[in-house]
Amino acid sequence: MFYITSFILGGAVLGWLFFWCSGDPFAQMSKGKSVSWVLLIGGIIVCLILMFFVKKFVLNRMLCQRTLYQTEARYNTKRVVFTAMLDTGNALYTIMGRRPVVLVNQTTIEKLMDDCVAKFLKECPSEQWFESLEACGDAGWLSRVQIIPYRAVGTNSLLLGFRPDILVIKTESGVIETDNVVLGLYRGELSNKDMYQALLHPAILKV
Protein backbone atom coordinates (compact mmCIF):
# COMPACT_ATOMS: atom_id res chain seq x y z
CA MET A 1 0.00 0.00 0.00
CA PHE A 2 2.89 2.39 0.81
CA TYR A 3 4.54 1.87 -2.58
CA ILE A 4 1.25 2.32 -4.44
CA THR A 5 0.60 5.53 -2.50
CA SER A 6 4.08 6.88 -3.25
CA PHE A 7 3.76 6.03 -6.94
CA ILE A 8 0.39 7.77 -7.26
CA LEU A 9 1.60 10.79 -5.26
CA GLY A 10 4.72 11.27 -7.36
CA GLY A 11 2.91 10.67 -10.64
CA ALA A 12 0.15 13.14 -9.83
CA VAL A 13 2.57 15.92 -8.89
CA LEU A 14 4.77 15.38 -11.96
CA GLY A 15 1.74 15.22 -14.25
CA TRP A 16 0.46 18.48 -12.80
CA LEU A 17 3.83 20.19 -13.31
CA PHE A 18 4.18 18.97 -16.91
CA PHE A 19 0.65 20.17 -17.67
CA TRP A 20 1.07 23.70 -16.31
CA CYS A 21 4.76 24.41 -16.82
CA SER A 22 5.86 25.86 -20.14
CA GLY A 23 8.46 23.32 -21.21
CA ASP A 24 10.12 20.52 -19.30
CA PRO A 25 10.13 21.24 -15.53
CA PHE A 26 13.24 19.07 -15.08
CA ALA A 27 15.07 21.06 -17.74
CA GLN A 28 14.10 24.29 -16.03
CA MET A 29 15.38 23.07 -12.66
CA SER A 30 18.65 21.88 -14.22
CA LYS A 31 19.19 25.44 -15.50
CA GLY A 32 18.69 26.87 -12.05
CA LYS A 33 15.10 27.96 -12.55
CA SER A 34 12.74 27.16 -9.70
CA VAL A 35 9.29 25.72 -10.19
CA SER A 36 6.45 27.92 -8.94
CA TRP A 37 5.37 27.07 -5.41
CA VAL A 38 1.79 27.72 -6.48
CA LEU A 39 2.05 24.97 -9.10
CA LEU A 40 3.73 22.63 -6.63
CA ILE A 41 1.06 23.17 -3.97
CA GLY A 42 -1.64 22.77 -6.63
CA GLY A 43 -0.11 19.44 -7.62
CA ILE A 44 -0.12 18.25 -4.02
CA ILE A 45 -3.78 19.25 -3.59
CA VAL A 46 -4.75 17.37 -6.76
CA CYS A 47 -2.77 14.39 -5.51
CA LEU A 48 -4.53 14.38 -2.13
CA ILE A 49 -7.93 14.45 -3.85
CA LEU A 50 -6.91 11.51 -6.04
CA MET A 51 -5.59 9.64 -3.01
CA PHE A 52 -8.91 10.08 -1.20
CA PHE A 53 -10.85 8.38 -3.99
CA VAL A 54 -8.22 5.68 -4.58
CA LYS A 55 -8.09 4.85 -0.87
CA LYS A 56 -11.89 4.71 -0.68
CA PHE A 57 -12.01 2.36 -3.68
CA VAL A 58 -9.28 0.07 -2.34
CA LEU A 59 -10.80 -0.11 1.15
CA ASN A 60 -14.24 -0.88 -0.26
CA ARG A 61 -12.80 -3.72 -2.34
CA MET A 62 -10.92 -5.11 0.67
CA LEU A 63 -14.06 -4.87 2.83
CA CYS A 64 -16.15 -6.69 0.23
CA GLN A 65 -13.59 -9.47 -0.03
CA ARG A 66 -13.67 -9.97 3.75
CA THR A 67 -17.45 -9.88 4.18
CA LEU A 68 -18.67 -11.77 1.09
CA TYR A 69 -18.92 -15.55 1.31
CA GLN A 70 -19.70 -18.22 -1.25
CA THR A 71 -22.67 -20.07 0.20
CA GLU A 72 -24.59 -23.17 -0.81
CA ALA A 73 -28.04 -24.23 0.37
CA ARG A 74 -29.32 -27.79 -0.10
CA TYR A 75 -32.87 -29.08 0.09
CA ASN A 76 -34.00 -32.53 -1.01
CA THR A 77 -32.12 -33.24 -4.26
CA LYS A 78 -31.59 -29.58 -5.17
CA ARG A 79 -28.86 -27.12 -4.32
CA VAL A 80 -28.22 -23.47 -5.07
CA VAL A 81 -24.96 -21.53 -4.79
CA PHE A 82 -25.05 -17.81 -4.04
CA THR A 83 -23.02 -15.00 -2.51
CA ALA A 84 -23.89 -13.94 1.03
CA MET A 85 -22.74 -10.78 2.79
CA LEU A 86 -22.04 -10.88 6.50
CA ASP A 87 -24.58 -8.60 8.17
CA THR A 88 -23.39 -7.83 11.70
CA GLY A 89 -26.70 -6.06 12.34
CA ASN A 90 -28.74 -9.17 11.56
CA ALA A 91 -30.26 -10.24 14.89
CA LEU A 92 -33.13 -12.33 13.50
CA TYR A 93 -33.85 -15.61 15.26
CA THR A 94 -36.81 -17.95 14.99
CA ILE A 95 -39.13 -18.21 17.98
CA MET A 96 -39.21 -22.00 17.78
CA GLY A 97 -35.72 -23.40 18.36
CA ARG A 98 -34.06 -19.97 18.25
CA ARG A 99 -32.34 -20.62 14.93
CA PRO A 100 -30.42 -17.79 13.20
CA VAL A 101 -32.14 -16.44 10.09
CA VAL A 102 -30.34 -15.81 6.79
CA LEU A 103 -32.21 -13.42 4.50
CA VAL A 104 -32.14 -14.62 0.88
CA ASN A 105 -33.58 -13.16 -2.33
CA GLN A 106 -36.80 -14.88 -3.32
CA THR A 107 -35.47 -15.52 -6.86
CA THR A 108 -32.54 -17.42 -5.34
CA ILE A 109 -34.76 -19.46 -3.01
CA GLU A 110 -37.06 -20.44 -5.89
CA LYS A 111 -34.21 -22.39 -7.53
CA LEU A 112 -34.19 -24.62 -4.47
CA MET A 113 -37.92 -25.28 -4.41
CA ASP A 114 -40.13 -27.78 -6.19
CA ASP A 115 -42.18 -26.36 -9.05
CA CYS A 116 -45.41 -26.08 -7.06
CA VAL A 117 -43.74 -24.06 -4.29
CA ALA A 118 -41.87 -21.81 -6.74
CA LYS A 119 -45.13 -21.16 -8.60
CA PHE A 120 -46.91 -20.35 -5.34
CA LEU A 121 -44.22 -17.85 -4.30
CA LYS A 122 -44.27 -16.15 -7.70
CA GLU A 123 -48.02 -15.92 -8.22
CA CYS A 124 -49.26 -15.31 -4.70
CA PRO A 125 -48.75 -11.75 -3.33
CA SER A 126 -46.35 -11.81 -0.38
CA GLU A 127 -48.92 -10.22 1.93
CA GLN A 128 -51.15 -13.27 1.30
CA TRP A 129 -48.49 -15.94 1.75
CA PHE A 130 -49.38 -16.79 5.34
CA GLU A 131 -53.12 -17.19 4.84
CA SER A 132 -52.64 -19.16 1.60
CA LEU A 133 -49.74 -21.45 2.52
CA GLU A 134 -51.68 -24.69 2.14
CA ALA A 135 -52.40 -23.78 -1.49
CA CYS A 136 -48.80 -24.56 -2.44
CA GLY A 137 -49.55 -28.29 -2.12
CA ASP A 138 -46.12 -29.41 -0.87
CA ALA A 139 -46.54 -31.03 2.55
CA GLY A 140 -42.81 -31.66 2.94
CA TRP A 141 -41.95 -28.00 2.43
CA LEU A 142 -44.82 -26.84 4.65
CA SER A 143 -43.44 -28.96 7.51
CA ARG A 144 -40.25 -26.88 7.32
CA VAL A 145 -41.88 -23.47 7.10
CA GLN A 146 -41.46 -21.05 9.98
CA ILE A 147 -42.99 -17.62 10.46
CA ILE A 148 -40.49 -15.10 11.77
CA PRO A 149 -41.60 -11.87 13.47
CA TYR A 150 -39.38 -8.86 12.91
CA ARG A 151 -39.42 -5.11 13.34
CA ALA A 152 -38.71 -2.75 10.45
CA VAL A 153 -38.98 1.05 10.32
CA GLY A 154 -40.98 1.21 13.53
CA THR A 155 -43.53 -1.43 12.51
CA ASN A 156 -43.93 -5.09 13.39
CA SER A 157 -44.08 -7.53 10.50
CA LEU A 158 -43.73 -11.20 9.60
CA LEU A 159 -41.20 -13.00 7.45
CA LEU A 160 -41.68 -16.36 5.74
CA GLY A 161 -38.79 -18.77 6.24
CA PHE A 162 -37.98 -22.45 5.88
CA ARG A 163 -35.30 -24.86 7.07
CA PRO A 164 -32.95 -26.24 4.40
CA ASP A 165 -31.24 -29.61 4.77
CA ILE A 166 -27.90 -27.87 5.18
CA LEU A 167 -26.16 -24.56 4.60
CA VAL A 168 -22.49 -24.55 3.54
CA ILE A 169 -20.33 -21.43 3.86
CA LYS A 170 -16.79 -21.19 2.50
CA THR A 171 -14.50 -19.02 4.65
CA GLU A 172 -10.78 -18.26 4.68
CA SER A 173 -10.31 -20.64 7.60
CA GLY A 174 -12.34 -23.50 6.13
CA VAL A 175 -15.87 -24.68 5.38
CA ILE A 176 -18.79 -24.26 7.79
CA GLU A 177 -21.76 -26.62 7.51
CA THR A 178 -24.89 -26.18 9.57
CA ASP A 179 -28.49 -27.37 9.58
CA ASN A 180 -29.39 -25.14 12.51
CA VAL A 181 -30.51 -22.28 10.29
CA VAL A 182 -33.61 -20.86 8.62
CA LEU A 183 -33.67 -19.11 5.24
CA GLY A 184 -35.90 -16.03 5.28
CA LEU A 185 -37.52 -15.13 1.95
CA TYR A 186 -36.94 -11.54 0.88
CA ARG A 187 -39.15 -10.42 -1.99
CA GLY A 188 -36.81 -8.07 -3.79
CA GLU A 189 -33.10 -7.52 -4.34
CA LEU A 190 -30.76 -7.13 -1.38
CA SER A 191 -27.99 -5.59 -3.52
CA ASN A 192 -28.50 -3.01 -6.27
CA LYS A 193 -25.64 -4.41 -8.35
CA ASP A 194 -26.39 -8.04 -7.40
CA MET A 195 -23.06 -8.34 -5.57
CA TYR A 196 -24.74 -10.61 -3.06
CA GLN A 197 -28.06 -12.42 -2.80
CA ALA A 198 -28.24 -13.06 0.95
CA LEU A 199 -27.49 -11.50 4.34
CA LEU A 200 -25.56 -13.88 6.56
CA HIS A 201 -26.28 -14.06 10.28
CA PRO A 202 -23.05 -13.48 12.30
CA ALA A 203 -23.88 -16.34 14.70
CA ILE A 204 -23.39 -18.87 11.88
CA LEU A 205 -19.71 -17.99 11.50
CA LYS A 206 -19.21 -18.69 15.21
CA VAL A 207 -20.40 -22.30 14.90
Characteristic key phrases:
single chain, 207 residues, alpha+beta, Cathepsin D, subunit A, domain 1, 2 domains, nine-stranded mixed β-sheet, 9 strands, elongated, membrane, EC 3.4.23.-, hydrolase, aspartic-type endopeptidase activity
What would the CATH topology of the largest domain be? Cathepsin D, subunit A, domain 1
Structural domain count: 2
Q: Which CATH C-level class of the largest domain is it? A: Mainly Beta
The stretches of 5 or more residues where confidence is low (pLDDT under 50) are 25-33
Separation of termini?
34 Å
Please specify the SSE layout and strand pairing.
Layout: H1 2-20, H2 25-30, H3 37-67, E1 68-75, E2 78-86, E3 101-105, H4 106-110, H5 115-123, H6 139-142, E4 145-152, E5 155-162, E6 166-171, E7 174-178, E8 182-186, E9 198-200
Parallel strand pairs: 2-9, 3-8
Antiparallel strand pairs: 1-2, 1-6, 3-9, 4-5, 5-8, 6-7
Helix pairs in contact: 1-3
Can you give a write-up of this model?
- It contains six helices and nine strands.
- Strands 4-5-8-3-9-2-1-6-7 form a nine-stranded mixed sheet.
- Helix 1 runs antiparallel to helix 3 (37-67).
- The radius of gyration is 27 Å and the shape is elongated.
- The two termini are 34 Å apart.
- The protein has two domains: 2-65; 68-206, Cathepsin D, subunit A, domain 1 (Beta Barrel).
- The chain is an alpha+beta fold and 207 residues long.
Structure in a nutshell:
Pfam families: Peptidase_U4 (PF03419). The protein is α+β, with helices and mostly antiparallel strands.
